[in-house]
Amino acid sequence: MKIASPLITHTLFTLGPVPITTPVVTTWAIMAVLTLGAWAATRRLALRPSRLQAGLEVIVDMISGQIRETMDAPPAPYLPLIGTLFIFVLVANWSSLIPGVEPPTAALETDAALALIVFGATIFFGVRAVGPGHYLLTFAQPSLFMVPLNVVELFTRSFSLTVRLFGNVMSGVFMIGIVLSLAGLLVPIPLMALELLTGAVQAYIFGALAMVFIGSAIGEASQREAKT
Amino acid sequence: MNWIHLVSILGAAFAISIGAIAPALAQGRAVAAAMDAIARQPEAASTVSRTLFVGLAMIETMAIYCLVIALLLLFANPFA
């Protein structure tokens, strides 16, 4: 039995010199659905919310509550980034329920792009909290000997963020594929239910880790400011 | 099927099996400690479970690294 490698994404079509792979198309479809859905749902906001508006408000409220608890900071500057990351990863993980769709987070490149966003946001918020000079000083935080370790940590945690999401989602898809090729039509359904749970937990963990990283960047900075 | 294929398959199996044992033990310890903490202090349950989830994700990364090594050996082996 020949199994396709999960590390290779296959090209759907080429747009001039640029090859367009399947995860890119799925990502853009999810982005379009989320953007249009959010636009349509927030077009007529009322003081007495409709059922849809109340549901969305519950989600936004939950995410901002999590941000406030985890980061000990007012959630407003971080809510758009963290909320978008969480909802995008959740929808992307659950998109495997649609027949024929492979979740874009099961490709290493999508996860690397998401982790790169978190990497950039960590530095951006850290620099914005205290300015570039003080942010660089936080790398020598306990003592000067910690500088190489702190710099290495900055990169390894982005890498582990990538590999964690990729490994979890891809292994689920891979396992369902193998079971489907061995057994019949309805056998993988419990595995797919498990995959729903894993997808939700991984989306939560991705958001929580982004919060923890950004929170540590601005937290160390504000502690430093309090000391000086 | 030359010997590099054979060694790669064995290596992948060993990587994922050893890589599953240690994180499983570690996650068991972490969950047990969290249960203990929640039983002692039920009002801190939300904080404990949030920290537990993040910690479990960190531990699980080790198993995922082993999975990636196994997949590299099987599907992207630089020597085969």
State the CATH superfamily name of chain B: F1F0 ATP synthase subunit C
**Share in helix of chain B:** over 70%
If you compute it from the alpha carbons, what radius of gyration of chain B comes out, rounded to the nearest whole angstrom?
18 Å
**What amount of the residues of chain A lies in strands?**
under 5%
Q: Mind telling me which CATH architecture of chain B this is?
A: Up-down Bundle
Q: Describe the sheet with the most strands of chain B.
A: none
Count of spatially separate domains of chain A: 1
Which structural category fits the helices and strands of chain B? mainly alpha
Using a beta-carbon cutoff below 8 angstroms, give the protein chain pair with the largest interface and the number of residues from each chain: A-B, 20 and 17 residues
- Average pLDDT of chain A, rounded to a whole number, is 85
CATH class placement of chain B: Mainly Alpha
Query: Into which percent range does the helicity of residues of chain A fall?
Result: over 70%
Global outline of chain B: elongated
The count of strands of chain B amounts to 0
